[in-house]
Specification:
The protein has about 325 residues and is an alpha+beta fold. It contains five helices and 20 strands.
């Protein structure tokens, strides 16, 4: 019935629950390979997305709907061939059934999406005093498809393999562990990150800019001996007032307590966190790369007891999401 409805009616803007339910029944084993280029002053990010997925049954006659509401869509290829029959309607790509196969499929698309100071899933903050700039994603609850083509629903978890090209002097952090940084000889470099564990699209994240980086480590907890890397990304101006030792200790204690509480070791490859200027929330629990509003964890005065309590509560809150929310996730947005 869902396939019949989609055959006679184009998908509407946003992610309809009926569309998400149909895709959850049809699609499995989703993998994204994303390549993006960030210019120092560009007003858009340009990239290439490769989406691999498995169709459990024969392709529905209505085709398969992929979501994309960015600013520009380039060439689309389906299973190795240029797909002239793909329709781009209402922020979605309708992939024709005759280009799809039961089993494994691959969609490749070039795209561009806006970068702005506000209102976009990729935000640029420019420090008015130093002139330094910082870019960061915020895709919750359903803005991933405004940045790159994807199945933008929380129950279609996927692995993400990210490659970013940006100015060589910048630092770049993402969900996955950095595998290689390669200078390109033109003042830029390529950062290649390891594929993530399966995560929801709203949890994909990266930040890039003129950060300083401090490093520590933490035990996995729940009786496991190995340690994982933990890094703090912050503006150079923040180093004089941030209590980095306290922040590392709070994150490590939170991991130890929650791993014991859930009887489950920390479930991701690393635990980095970024003090983001102008971040609209206190924090966001991206796996392996938690983003915090810088003023929530760093103080330009002697903090009060209440401020220290709130700081601890925020850190425990975001770290707890690594298990409840990231490892175990919701099916639909009303459970967020």
């Amino acid at each position: 019935m869902l396939s019949i409805l989609l055959a006679v009616q184009d998908p509407q803007p946003g992610i309809a629950r009926e569309l998400a339910q149909a895709r959850a029944q049809q699609i499995a084993q989703v993998h994204y390979e994303l390549e993006m280029t960030l210019g120092a002053d560009a007003d858009a990010v340009r990239g290439r997305a490769v989406v691999r997925f498995t169709l459990r049954d024969a392709p529905p006659t209505s085709g398969i709907v992929l979501d994309f509401a960015g600013s520009e869509l380039g060439e689309v290829r389906v299973n190795g061939s240029r797909a002239d029959g793909v329709r781009h309607v209402h922020g979605h790509l309708v992939l024709p059934a005759d280009r799809l196969d039961q089993g494994e499929n691959e969609v490749e698309a070039t795209f561009a999406s806006a970068i702005a100071a506000t209102g976009t899933p990729l935000t640029r903050y420019r420090d008015s005093a130093s002139g330094r700039q910082y870019l960061y994603t915020l895709l919750v609850p359903a803005d991933a498809h405004r940045l790159f083509p994807c199945f933008d629903q929380p129950d279609l978890k996927a692995t993400f393999a990210l490659t970013l090209v940006a100015p060589e002097a910048w630092q770049v952090v993402a969900n996955g562990e950095l595998e290689h940084k390669t200078a390109l000889g033109d003042g830029t470099a390529r950062w290649q990150f390891a594929p993530t564990e399966p995560i929801s699209t709203y949890l994909f994240a990266f930040a890039a800019g003129e950060w300083d980086v401090l490093e520590s480590s933490f035990p996995l907890g729940a009786g496991r001996d190995p340690e994982r890397r933990m890094r703090l990304y912050l503006r150079p101006e923040e180093k004089a007032r941030v209590d980095a030792a306290a922040l590392f200790a709070l994150h490590a204690r939170a991991v130890a307590w929650l791993a014991a509480h859930f009887d489950q070791p920390y479930p991701f490859a690393k635990l980095d966190f970024v003090l983001v200027p102008g971040f609209p929330y206190g924090g966001m629990e991206h796996p392996g790369a938690i983003f915090y509003r810088d003023q929530a964890l760093s103080f330009d005065h002697v903090p009060t007891s209440a401020e220290l309590t709130n700081r601890s509560a925020l850190i425990y809150h975001e770290v707890s999401h690594q298990w409840f929310g990231n490892l175990v996730s919701f099916v639909w947005f009303d459970d967020l």
